[in-house]
Structure formats: C-alpha cells, structure tokens
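TASK: fixed-backbone design
INPUT:
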C-alpha cells in the first residue's frame, strides 16, 4: 500500500458515494494500466475490501488499519493514480460533476450558482413582506424618497462670517 497506487471509486449500493481507496484492497488484483482503463471505461463493478475507518494518506493509514474491521463492498472504479490526484478528482466530481472540468465547465457551474442565488434572494425578499403586503425594499425606498422631499423644503439660511484683516507694521 502506497500513495502512488490509489483509486477513486463509487459505491454502488450507497447512493453513489465517492471515496478514495488503495489498489491493494481490490479483491480482483489488477496490475496493468490497460486493465484499470478497461474497468473504468466500461463501468464494470468490482469487489473491494473496505475498512470501517477514515481513509487517509498511507503514513496515517497503516496505523489505523491495525484496529479496523473490514467488509466486502461493490464499487465502480472512476480513476487511478496517486493520492493527491485522486483527492483533486474527488473534489472536482463533487463540485463540478466531472473528473477534469474545463474552464468552460467551471464558468457554467458558477453562472448557475449565481442565478440560483438571485432566485433565492427574490424568494427571501418575498418572505419578508409585512402584513400590509409591502416588502422591506419598498419601505426603504419610500423612506429615502420622503427624506429627499424634506431636504428640498428646507431653505438655506444665510451664514454670517466676520472677517478681520490685520495689518502688520
């Protein structure tokens, strides 16, 4: 078990939960990259021994495995490689829905998030309506208009300024 031989997998029977494991845990031993590629491309389900502890890099994992209980689960392989790369892929899958999003994919997701935020803010403002049916934004606008009208009605008062000149001798 080492950090260069990790796999990104999806649990078939657990709402497609995504996790990172180690190639050594596979019950069907796969050693060649071509075999991994075939399993990934064809979405072939495989069995893996899975510990009941948190999965971490190898340095911490060896200590944890001494006290873990193992169970056999069915998974689909999504990717294979080193630990850091699998962590990045996992994060991309959860955030963008693809292993390696392009710049355009990220932009589309961000635009969608912004449009969702706009819709949510409209819903929140509608919920803030008072008993009369006026939103807080409308109340603030009417208050500011009222203040502007009051400012226009004030007359300017003349200011007296005494200016003294001193002459030096």
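OUTPUT:
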């Amino acid at each position: 078990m080492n950090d260069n031989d990790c796999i990104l997998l999806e649990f078939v029977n657990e709402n497609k939960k995504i996790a990172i494991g180690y190639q050594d845990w596979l019950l069907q031993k796969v050693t060649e990259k071509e075999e991994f590629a075939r399993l990934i491309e064809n979405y072939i389900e495989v069995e893996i021994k899975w510990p009941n502890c948190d999965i971490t890099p190898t340095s911490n994992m060896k200590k944890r495995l001494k006290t873990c209980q193992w169970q056999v689960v069915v998974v689909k392989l999504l990717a294979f490689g080193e630990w850091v790369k699998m962590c990045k892929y996992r994060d991309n899958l959860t955030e963008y829905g693809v292993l390696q999003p392009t710049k355009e994919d990220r932009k589309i997701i961000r635009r969608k998030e912004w449009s969702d935020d706009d819709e949510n803010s409209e819903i929140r403002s509608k919920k803030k309506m008072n008993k009369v049916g006026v939103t807080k934004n409308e109340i603030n606008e009417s208050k500011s208009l009222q203040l502007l009208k009051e400012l226009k009605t004030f007359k300017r008062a003349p200011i007296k300024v005494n200016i003294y000149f001193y002459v030096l001798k």
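COMMENT: The first strand starts at residue 6 and ends at 11.
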